[in-house]
Design a protein that fits this description.
- It contains 12 helices and 22 strands.
- It is of the alpha/beta class.
- The strands form 5 sheets. It has a 7-stranded mixed beta sheet. Strands 17, 18, 19, 20, 21 and 22 form a 6-stranded parallel beta sheet that branches. A 5-stranded mixed beta sheet has the order 12-13-14-15-16, with no helix packed on it.
- It is elongated, with a radius of gyration of 24 Å.
- It binds MU-OXO-diiron (FEO).
- MU-OXO-diiron binds next to helix 2.
Length: about 400
């Protein structure tokens, strides 16, 4: 495995092949916790790993340098998948000083006792000279925690970007040109949709700063390193952070006795006739991770549910809670579904569309018990209208 970014700069992290649930994110391809060692006249470790894997991090470090030679441990982000192994790491590196922002120290102290740690506080724009290389720090609040920070090495035009631009993607290869680009983009999209999406505005501001920097390589805290295609992932982030819509329709639904499923199929059928990209997802057969990823770039989304006890189905409730937190923007949509003797399901979804400020294209399409041909025709027409709205509101992605 090639772990060298540049002579003297190496990946020393851990590949987590088996993780499948990352605080409810379905990590179907596992993940990596990336840490990097910068060796110059002084040596700096950039980030650590998740607590159970601290020994592997230390093994990778000591394969390259004596532990006494490590002068700095930079903490770009205090979340435990990166900072969890800091206590073990600092204990094993006797001459190392932790480098972090004041906010990061505050967040770390809420997790572990840092009172005995040697800490050097840095602010945005501060630098640490290592010899022929310099570490420059850039505060990135709410991308995606308040204490988040990037570390930039101007001599190599190398950006250590912690979670930003990352992917939950376990692979023995460390660089984007060693794996299929489409897979890396898919995983970066899923990562953005499920972790970063609520923070579109700070990300957009950050990208404006990044546009003023000379960046040749982006080394995130998860997944592969952007060595060949850094401009591609920067453009994708600009698309996602600015809520740019593709001509794509997503139909999400749950069903009890196939009535709402039949309606969903007809909504999708109406949308198919447009020739656009259409996805039909049963919410109990599709993970929330996948649904959020599908919704990210879609211009139009229909959501269907039967009424259960005057409410939406529980899985639809979970979906709305999850999407409501992620705050996908710039969508048009409508609700649909069946009921028996009392309404409520589709109506709750309809109300939710207003709470997330999606454009509400029409009143809910509702069927009593079984959808008759008239209702199914209305579903097809609603699907066609949804697709037409998706086509007219879609924007060209920035990298095409
Ligand atoms: Fe990979 Fe926000 O931690």
């Amino acid at each position: 495995m090639n772990t060298q970014l540049f002579p003297g700069i190496d990946w020393v992290g851990y590949i987590d092949w088996k993780v499948r649930d990352f605080h409810s994110y379905d990590t179907v391809r596992g993940t990596t916790y990336n840490a990097y060692l910068v060796r110059d006249r002084k040596t700096a470790l950039i980030d650590a790993v998740k607590a159970p894997f601290g020994d592997r991090l230390l093994r990778n470090i000591t394969g390259l340098v004596e532990p006494e030679r490590v002068d700095y441990v930079v903490c770009n982000h205090a979340e435990p998948d990166h900072a969890g192994a800091l206590p073990e790491t600092l204990a094993a590196l006797p001459n190392a000083t932790l480098v972090c922002t004041k906010k990061c120290r505050e967040v770390l102290a809420a997790h572990v006792d840092v009172s005995d740690w040697p800490i050097q506080l840095v602010d945005g724009g501060d630098t640490i000279a290592l010899g022929n290389r310099t570490l420059t720090f850039l505060k990135t609040p709410m991308v995606h925690w308040p204490e988040s920070m990037f570390t930039y090495v101007p001599e190599e035009k190398l950006l250590f970007s912690m979670d930003a631009f990352g992917q939950h993607y376990a692979t023995s290869e460390r660089f984007d040109d060693e794996v299929a680009l489409a897979t890396t983009i898919d995983e970066a999209r899923a990562y953005y949709a499920n972790i970063v999406m609520p923070f579109g505005r700070p990300v957009a501001n950050l990208l404006k700063q990044a546009a003023t920097m000379d960046i040749a390589m982006i080394a995130p805290a998860h997944g592969v390193i952007w060595r060949r295609h850094p401009e591609r992932i920067l453009a994708e982030y600009a698309n996602w952070a600015n809520g740019r819509r593709r001509p794509k329709v997503v139909v999400l639904y749950d069903s009890m006795w196939d009535s709402t499923e039949r309606m969903a199929e007809c909504v999708a059928e109406g949308a198919f006739s447009s020739g656009l990209d259409v996805k039909l997802c049963h919410v109990r057969r599709t993970s929330l991770t996948t649904i959020a990823t599908e919704v990210l770039e879609a211009a139009a989304v229909a959501i269907g549910t039967p009424t259960l006890n005057q409410e939406k189905m529980p899985a639809v409730g979970a979906l709305l809670t999850y999407l409501g937190g992620l705050k996908p923007v710039n969508k048009a949509g409508f609700a649909f579904g069946s009921f028996g003797w009392s309404k409520g399901g589709a109506e709750r979804v309809d109300e939710w569309l207003d709470t997330v400020k999606w454009e509400r294209l029409q009143e809910p399409v509702i069927a009593r018990y079984r959808p008759d041909e008239e209702i199914l025709t209305a579903c097809r027409a609603a699907g066609a209208a949804l697709a037409a709205r998706a086509r007219e509101s879609a924007e060209l992605p920035l990298f095409d």
